[in-house]
Structure prediction request, 101 residues.
Amino acid sequence: MTTFQINLIGGKAALFILALGAVLIASSPAMWMLVPLARSPVVGLITEENQGKAFAVATLCTSIGELIGLPATTAIWMKAIDLGGTGFGLPYYFSSVSMQY
Prediction:
């Protein structure tokens, strides 16, 4: 298996874990049930010479996501506040869906 394939599998696994975490947060009925999920074990699969590139790509993706996601999440939070009750999970469901694309 090539380094590219390993990185691709690791990236897909990290996105799946992120989406799963957002769904779990959105559907948790109480605050004490929220459990943080870690992506750092995936970094161990990347060779040392490629770790800098991997972190640079991750930082770039995070920056682009923040530019798009923050305004969208703000708008969705405003709608969730209007809905009230279980509507407060709406931004987390949005996050879990948007992480898959």
Observations:
- The chain has one domain: 3-98.
- Helices lie at 3-27, 48-83, 90-98.
